[in-house]
Amino acid sequence: MESIIPLLSVLSLALVANLVTASHNKRANKLFDWILAILNVPLLLMGILLLIVPPQSISFLAELELPELNLTAAGWVLIAIAIWSILSCIRPWRRLLARLLPLNPESAVHTLALLLAGYLTGNTLFALTQDIVAELVNTGLIVTIVDVVLQQAAFVFVAFVGAGYLTRRNLKEVSQRLGLVRPDAGQLLLGLASIGILLTLQWTIGVIWLLLDPQQAELFGELNDTLLSGLDTFGEWFILALASGIGEEILFRGALQPVFGIVFTALLFAIVHVQYGLTPITLAVFLLGLILGVLRQRTNTTVTIFVHFGYNLILGLMALLAVYVQDLLA
Fold this sequence. Notes:
mainly alpha
C-alpha cells in the first residue's frame, strides 16, 4: 500500500504528459517542463541539507531513527536525481541526448521518460550506497507472489498510460505501439533458441563468479534463497515467471526501448535489477537486456515476453529441483 502514492503520481504525470503532447501546444510543453523542474527543487534542497547539516540536528530524521543509513551518500543520490531531472526538463539538453538516443526532445512524454529513468537509477544508487544486502539477509525478508504480481501490474499500467492509452491512442493503437502483436511460428522458434542461449549465458557467468569470488557468490545465493523461500511450488514459480515476463517486457522493451534504444534500455534494465550490489550477474542481466532488445527490434514484444517467461520458469524449476534433491539426500 505504501507504493500506491508513487504509482498514482507517475500515472497522473503520464496522463498529463500525453495530453500535452496531443495538444501540440508549445506553451503547454514549456509549462510542463517548468512544472517538472520545480517539482524536483525540494529534492535538490533535501540532498543539500543532508550534506551540510548534522543528521541529529534534523528533527524529523532523528524521530525516524535511521542511524544505519549513510545519510551523506543518500544526500548525494538525491542531488544526482534532482540534477538529472532538472536537466531533463531543459530542451537543449534533450536535443543533445537525441543525438545518441531515438527520443523526441520536443515530446513531453519522452521528457517524463527521461526523468523517470533518473529516478529508477537513483533508487538503485541509494540501495548500493547502503548496507542493503546484509540487512535483507538478517531480516529474512520474503518475496510473495502478491508482491510480484502487484509490481508487474504497476509496470503494465505505467507502460499503457505512458504510451497514450486513454489520451492519444485507443487500445489497438497502444498494443501496436508496445509491440503486442501475434507472433508467427518462425518467431517462436527464434524465441526458443534465445531461451537456450540465455540459460547458457547465465550458467557460464554463474560458474565464473563462483570460481573467482565464492564468498560473494555464497552471500548473494543466500540472499536469493531467503527472498524466494516462499516460492516452493510449480504454480508459484509459473505465476512469478509469467508476471515478470509480461510486466518487465511491456515496460522496458515495449514502452521504453522505442524512446531510449536497445543499449540504454538494456542498461536501465540491468540497473533496476542490481539493488543488492554490482556482481557478475549484473553483466548477465545487461546481456539479457541486449538480447531481448534485439529480439524486440527484429520481432515484437510478445516474443520477448515468451522468452523472458521461459527463461525465468526454467530457472525456477531448476531451483525447485535443487531443493528437492537436497531434501532427498538429507
